[in-house]
Amino acid sequence: MTKLLLPLAIAVGTALFLLGLRKVFLSHLKHWTHRRYANLDDLSVAVIRGPSIYWCLACSIYVGIELSELGPKYSKPLHEAITVIVILSVAIALANLAVLIFSRLVSSSSDQPHASGLMVGLIRGSIIILGGLVILSVLGVSIAPLLTALGVGGLAVALALKDTLENLFAGIYLITDRTIRVGDYIKLESGQEGRVEDIGWRTTRIRLGELSTVITPNSKLSQGLVTNYCLPDRRIFTNTVISVDDSADPQAVEETLLAVVHQSTEDVVGVLSLPEPNVRFGPGTRPGIFDFVLSFSVRDYNDQTFTKHELRKRIYKQFKEKNIPLPKPVLGGSATKPS
Q: 167: part of which helix (H) or strand (E)?
């Protein structure tokens, strides 16, 4: 027993030393990559942060074995444990790298803010499972009988988890078909609308506002009638009704509205210059009032509220400066301003 205490103490000391060295190394690595490659500082550290703990553990076990007088009966299982730890850590590092690269490709090549949880899970799980198969092969465990047993047992599991698998494959269908993507603003058949936060293994989360989220099964979403306001692209053409007094010059009103929109494309976030804005004149639904429908394009469905608010303020200000009369107050009511 006393012969084991010294190697054990050395192994523990080695582990503590390596963990401290790891912390310093990761800190310097992040600082160095941030200076040289600003877009890789989080990537390099995130890939090896978790696996490096396993590497420290494997090294400390190896040092303890080399300094001990353990016979093959005990040293062989420990060497196999080191092999398992190294292979598992490499698989985790590769999974982290694959997920980060995939997430960056998704965010840079499309309008999605981030990759869906389902795809991230599939990528990570596939690499970890592959690493597990390599571990079994290294340990001398035959994989063929295991795969046969899994195939037979998989049928029973599939029957027991029918609903779960249905939602899983529905989620894969939604992602691959790209009819609904993370970040899209959609309207459900029930009338609820919001932005897709994530497509998971079983459910899809749709953010309705700041304080509420709808969680719907993937199968229901794939089978239901859904309006996607972000297809074929995220730009939408929206409109707002502007009312003026019927004594106003329609040509002056139209020119003012278009001028305000064109100016707003330069300094109002969300307002786009293309497709071109337009104004349609109507006689109005109330006596003494002309209605103008101002149509313009915005960057995203969620930009409508802010852009309409900002445009109305600017239109009201321009009407004041150009003496374009607003609708007169109605007896018993209130004055009508640009809507």
A: helix 162-177
